[in-house]
Amino acid sequence: MYNRWIEKSFSQNIHAPFVHILFGARQTGKSTLLKKLIPDATLWLDLSDPALRVEYTTHPELFVSQCKAIPKSASPNYIVVDEAQTVPAIFDAVQHLYDNDKSRWRFILCGSSARKMRDSSVNLLPGRSLLYNLYALTMAERPYRDAAAAKYTGIFPLKFSFDHDTPPDKLFPDAGLFERLAYGELPGIVSAPEENRGHLLKTYSLVYIEEEIRREAMIRNLTAFSRFLQFAATESGNMLNYAKIAKDAAVSIPTIKNYFQLLEEMFIVFRIPAFSGSTRKNLLSTERMYFFDLGVRHAAAGIPASKDMVPVNPGPLFEQWVVIELWKRLKYLGNGNMHYLRSASGFEIDCIISLGDKYIPIEIKWTEHPDRHDARHLESFMKRHPKAVDKAFIICRCRLPMEISENIIALPWFCL
């Protein structure tokens, strides 16, 4: 099986006497990871199976009885519950069992939605649980194998790689930029034959995003939700305009806001807020919304995924891919925040990463030949925040890193 970045820390922590909760969107590899790390689980329940889900929803006491029937042993028995959020009562049962005997079982609960737990007032076992998130693949898990990339890995300050003392033994298949922009970074997609990827992404959109999410949220106006989903995917990477999407989807603004909240709770979209650390008075405060994966975004927008579609409008796709990559890193590292900057006068920076009292401003350009003009907004930002910015970056398609001006580096995308 392929290596995942979270694998080492998760495998070390999983033996600790707590309840372990793993969240992430569908097809990010949660079940595969757990089967790799816990191949001999004493009990494994997959509640995505409708029959099992109905059984435990109707008789939640079955779970307690089945766990208690497992013979005691010198080492704890591992109990895995996949798609645990579909039966919220499972969390109460786990809390009961854990509180009565912390050493007898190790519970691992896996889920792709936080909605039902919120709606059912289910807590995440505070004081008893460790929470993890799994995302689509990062550059560390699917590196671009280029000699130049290996030489310049230390330039970008947001370090993200496997620990050197335990190098990975099997990484995901390499890919060029067009392939990444066309199909995204879901494990099951990138490891499938290229001729099947577009169809798999379309199925993901139809079966999971539309049918399953609509069923879970009990959405009655299916036509309106489908229209919303397509418009939301088309607007991915842009500032949220509820009024425009509501008009296009022919539903109310409150309904659109509820739909977006639903997608967030299913880990399908995330938001990037506007930068508020500047003294400028005319900054716009609207958030930007991104789908968690470009391939899923294309499918939801009704765009057939292929490398041929990338040259049609590559700049926005490239910007989204870079933002998604950096967002995943920050989430895994658990340190730092991401913003964008845009003023009414047109001053704009694609991405500002804040780490403590330091900022890393980043422009994202499709160009192969960045120049001083591409750095003008970065230069202005650095003048306004001289103590907070050490270096700024232009992420682009140049062949090798380049110094554009003092402390502003143009960096090839594969050197992130």
Please tell me about this protein's structure.
The protein contains 16 helices and 13 strands. It is an alpha/beta fold and 416 residues long. The strands form 3 sheets. It has a 6-stranded mixed β-sheet with strand order 8-9-10-11-13-12, with helices on both faces. A 5-stranded parallel β-sheet has the order 2-3-4-1-5, sandwiched between helices.
Summarize the structure.
Helices cover 38% and strands 17% of the residues. It is an alpha/beta fold and 416 residues long.
Reconstruct the topology from this structure.
Layout: H1 7-13, E1 19-23, H2 30-37, E2 43-46, H3 50-58, H4 61-68, E3 77-82, H5 89-100, E4 105-111, H6 115-119, E5 129-133, H7 147-151, H8 177-183, H9 187-190, H10 194-217, H11 222-234, H12 242-249, H13 253-265, E6 269-272, E7 288-291, H14 294-300, H15 314-333, E8 337-342, E9 348-355, E10 358-364, H16 376-384, E11 392-396, E12 402-405, E13 408-412
Parallel strand pairs: 1-4, 1-5, 2-3, 3-4, 10-11, 11-13
Antiparallel strand pairs: 6-7, 8-9, 9-10, 12-13
Total discrete domains: 2
Mean pLDDT: 89
Low-confidence stretches: none
Summarize the amount of helix as a percent range: 25-40%
Number of strands: 13
- Give the topology string: H per helix, E per strand: HEHEHHEHEHEHHHHHHHEEHHEEEHEEE
**Rg from alpha-carbon coordinates:** 23 Å
Q: Report how far the terminal alpha carbons are from each other.
A: 25 Å
Query: Strand pairing plus helix content: what structural class?
Result: alpha/beta
- Could you describe the largest sheet, including whether it forms a barrel? 6 strands, mixed
**Overall 3D form:** globular
